[in-house]
Amino acid sequence: MSMIPSFFGNNRRGSNSFFDPFSLDVWDPFKDFPSSSSFSRENSAIVNARVDWRETPEAHVFKADLPGLKKEEVKVEIEDDSVLKISGERHVEKEDKNDTWHRVERSSGQFTRKFRLPENVKMDQVKAAMENGVLTVTVPKAEMKKPDVKSIQISG
Question: Which residues of the chain are under the pLDDT cut of 70?
């Protein structure tokens, strides 16, 4: 009898077998949670689109890996003058009835990433470019006005 509780997986071989640490039958704590119809593992494109956010003295620079997408399939927007939104859609390839699929790992569907920007940016000068499946969004920084400091003479 296994010493490991049954929540590590459904034991298909009966209750007298031992826990197999290499089994693919792993407990999923979220399997019984209701899922949103707009999000599913099977048809979500680039669900975790990888984005790097780098700040330089002049700008905030975002680089997103979007392999296989054309610039026409990607949208870059500014919402409420404070949120950078990168979204797009990867379409499903046309299927030929005579083809035999051995593996399907590339996803299709819509994706969205949002980033709240700091206050010191020039929203009207945002630029975006796409090259070799990498989207680069540059958000220039506004010059921070140094506060005026006035010395007050102390009497007495």
Answer: 1-48
